[in-house]
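Quick log. Single chain, no ligands specified.
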Amino acid sequence: MATEIEAKFKIDNLDTFAKRLRELGAQPRPTVLQRDTFLDRPDGFLLNKDAGLRIRQTDNQTILCTKGPRQPGPYKKRTEIELPAPSFDQALEMFQILGYSPCLCLEKKRTEYTLNDCLICLDQVALLGSFIEIEGPDEPAIKAIIDRLSLTSIPTITDSYAAMVAQYLKGKTPPLEALFPKS
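-> predicted structure:
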C-alpha cells in the first residue's frame, strides 16, 4: 500500500503561488476540473474508522480511491490506494451493490506542478476557496517545498476537503444540486 503524505494551506491568491512555482522551475500541467463523490454506508462505517472511499471524475478519467485512518505526524499522512475505473456509473453501481452510497460531492479546479519529487496542487474548491497542497515522498521533502514557497507562517490544515465541506454545510440546507451536481 502507498502512503500519502501531504501538507495543505488555505491561501488568498493562487496566482501568487503559480508565479512563484514557475520562478522555481516547476512546470504546470493543464488545469482540470475534478468532481469527487464520497461514499459510505448508512451507518457511517468509513467515517467512524477515519477512512474514506471516493470516486473522482475528470474530463477523461474516473479514479477509485480508498484512504485509511490518519497517522500521527505534522502533516496529513494515511494509506491510499488509487485505481482506474471504466466509468463513474459502473463504479457507483458496484459500490451501491456493496451497500455504499454517495454522501457528499465536491468540485475543484486543480493545477498540478512537480518540484523536487513533490506534487504541488493549486486548488480552487467550491464553497471553501483557494488552497495549496504539497504531497511528497517524506516529511523533509515537503518541508523543503514549504520553506521555498514561504508558507512557514501559514497554519497547516490536516482536514480533508470533504471534512471541510461537510463542516461548512453543517446546519445549512443547501440545494441538493450543491451536494450532488449532475454529471
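The mean pLDDT is 92.
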